[in-house]
Design goal:
The protein is α/β, with parallel strands linked by helices. Helices cover 40% and strands 22% of the residues.
Length: 356
């Protein structure tokens, strides 16, 4: 099977971690007889440096003309002063919008080998952490109207959080369908005691829930969810929420598992094509030093195989290889502890590829 993958190495540690994911994909291709064609593009800060914009038209077109996109990371302090329209993060928003990627799936699972890395108490960690965050990705405050203007002698800013019924309905379906493949439990997160957009969110989610009588559905306010994620994360199976809340909660969920460097994500739309990336940033402070953890990117590649290419066995192979390397005690610096074996970014990629 031949698949064309648009590769965005990006900024900071992005090129390093993407290199290791491609190394693993090449091993998979060789084992299973596939052919992966990589078309590389510039997006993010590196594109600003080269073209004066974070998402050149040619780069976007290659995202639209492929089977899926694999992304490393974009951004960094170097570009903090550029206009907001061309900031590195604007490239991600542009790709998601143009590709219609409205659903962001972020698994947060505690690898048993890394239980000691979790900041939570052992009695909480012992219950296990394995949840899926389903975040609406192209609506809400990030895509509403943004305006700063002078009123009564001072600057006043506003950011509109808006949602239509169809936007809520489609992400709700994604959450319930995902839950059917897991523990059949959905928690819908909102702020319905304050926000009109959340009250509509709750109403529509309940309507969709009626189509899934086999899946339990409950509501939770976003502030309570933030507390429950550190108090008892084992209670969650699938969490579905809007864009801003999901951005914050998914980062919290990843950290209770021990390291953000281990966490993968998938951004999906109506078809099979998606964009896959680790949820961490570009970490410019360690860029080019072979210190980054590539596992989040490698597991993102596994998600691409599973969700976009219907290659479940191949995805399982990668995930089992990661587990095998962790079982052998190998760790990058972010997950290193006494008694384990510290390795660099490229060495970790080599070890995972060797277990394919």
């Amino acid at each position: 099977m031949n698949k064309t993958i648009t590769v965005i190495r990006g900024d900071g540690i992005g090129p390093e971690i993407v290199a290791e994911a491609l190394k693993v994909l090449d091993k998979i291709a060789g084992k299973y007889g596939h052919s992966f064609t990589y078309q590389e593009i510039l997006a993010g800060g590196c594109a600003i440096d080269a073209f004066g914009k974070s998402l050149p038209e040619e780069s976007l077109q290659k995202c639209l003309d492929c089977d899926s996109v694999l992304l490393g990371a974009v951004g960094g302090p170097k570009w903090d002063g550029v206009a907001k329209e061309i900031r590195p993060e604007a490239a991600l928003l542009g790709i998601r919008s143009a590709m219609g990627l409205y659903a962001n799936l972020r698994p947060a699972r505690l690898f048993p080998q890394l239980a000691e890395a979790s900041p939570l108490k052992p009695e909480i960690v012992s219950k296990g952490i394995d949840l899926m965050m389903v975040r609406e990705l192209i609506g809400g405050a990030y895509f509403g109207e943004h305006k700063t203007a002078e009123e009564n002698g001072e600057l006043r800013a506003h950011d509109d959080m808006t949602y239509g019924e169809h936007e809520i309905r489609r992400i709700a379906h994604t959450a319930f369908q995902t839950a059917r493949k897991r523990g059949s439990r959905v928690v819908s997160v909102d702020k319905a005691n304050v926000l009109d957009s959340s009250r509509l969110w709750r109403k529509v989610v309940h309507q969709v829930a009626e189509e899934y009588p086999d899946v339990a559905c409950s509501d939770m306010l976003v502030d309570n969810t933030a507390m429950q994620l550190v108090k008892n994360p084992a209670q969650f199976d699938v969490i579905v929420t809007e864009n801003l809340f999901g951005d914050i909660l998914s980062d919290e969920a990843s950290m209770v598992t021990g390291s953000i460097g281990m966490m993968a994500s998938a951004s999906l739309g109506e078809g099979s094509r998606g964009m896959y990336e680790p949820i961490h940033g570009s970490a410019p402070d360690i860029a080019g030093q072979n210190l980054a953890n590539p596992i989040g990117t490698i597991l993102s590649a596994a998600m691409m195989l599973r969700y976009s290419f219907d290659m479940a066995a191949e995805a399982d192979d990668i995930e089992q290889a990661v587990n095998a390397v962790l079982d052998e005690g190998y760790r990058t610096g972010d997950i290193f502890s006494e008694g384990t074996k510290k390795v660099g970014c490229s060495e970790m990629g080599d070890l995972v590829a060797a277990h394919i």
